[in-house]
Amino acid sequence: MNPPVVTRFAPSPTGHLHIGGARTALFCWAFARRNGGHFILRIEDTDQARSSDESARGIMEDLAWLGIEWDEGPVLELEGTKGPRHEGTKGRTIGGDPRGVGPFFQARRVALYNKFIMQLVEQGKAYPAFETNEELDAKRKAVVAAKQTYRYDKAALAIPLADRLKRMSSGEAHVVRFNAPHEEVVVRDTVLGDVKYAAGEMDDFVIRKADGFPTYHFAVVVDDETMGVTHVMRAQ
After folding, report:
1. Which residues make Cβ contacts (< 8 Å) with residue 177, sequence separation at least 6?
2. Which of 27, 35, 199, 227 could form a disulfide with 5 if both were Cys (CB 3.0 to 4.6 A apart)?
3. Structural domains in the chain, sorted by start
């Protein structure tokens, strides 16, 4: 059975663990411990140009040195980890996948993201868009010149669904955009109360980039849902 509370800390391995990340990890770890739950470490490495295994390893070692140990996530052998807290722990490991919700590196979960992206496309809740960067830049400059706020104009939706799917499967370069709702969106936040987005305020943002990797704000939602995360605590 799933624990009653599941939290997560999900850093991007593009550098060292910083104090803000350590603070977030501490709050998530402490909340899970207080409520008898699980604390997950997930590595969000979809930025292929900047992510590295070295940074991921460094973040894990720093968390272990701080005593912030994860119940689920990449396995770290404590042998050689710096800090007096881990003296005498040779051979002990942190992490694992007791509930079978891994892998815990996003780059290894691309097939899962693609499954849900295609489901959204077929339901009309997302769609491929085929404009080049140059075409988008021209549209953006025209809107800015008119002193208006640029939002994608949904031009790709004028293409019949069957043709969109055919162009996707043919390998034509494209991104996938979320078909943002037209009505007001209200998110209930335990700290801030109701966070409201007015109707029409949300853009049809990209959820899969042209390189085939999902954007952060898509992958994180899929991961939180499929990993059973119950509480998200992070910087505002």
Report:
1. 126, 127, 128, 129, 152, 156, 204, 205, 206, 207
2. 35
3. 6-107 (3.40.50.620), 110-213 (3.90.800.10)
Going by the DSSP 8-state scheme, the letter that residue 213 receives in this structure is: P
Pairing mode, strands 93-96 and 73-77: antiparallel
Please report where in the chains the tokens 């999902």 appear, as a residue: 214
Instruction: Tell me how many degrees the CA angle 40-26-81 measures, rounded to the nearest 5.
Output: 75
- CB-based burial, 174-208: b 16+ in 10 Å, e otherwise: bbbbbebeeeeeeeeeeeeeeeeeeeeeeebebbb
Q: What is the pTM of this model?
A: 0.87
Both tokens of 40, joined, read 């997950």
Task: Tell me how far apart the alpha carbons of residues 85 and 47 are, in angstroms, rounded to a whole number.
Answer: 33
* CA triple 60-61-67, angle to 5 deg: 90
Q: Using the structure block, give the residue that is written with the tokens 């992070």.
A: 234
Q: Burial code of 66-78, b = ≥16 C-beta within 10 A, e = fewer?
A: eebbbbbbbebeb
Helices in the chain by DSSP H: which ranges? 19-34, 53-66, 110-122, 133-145, 161-169, 216-226
Phi, psi of 226 (to 5 degrees): -75, -20
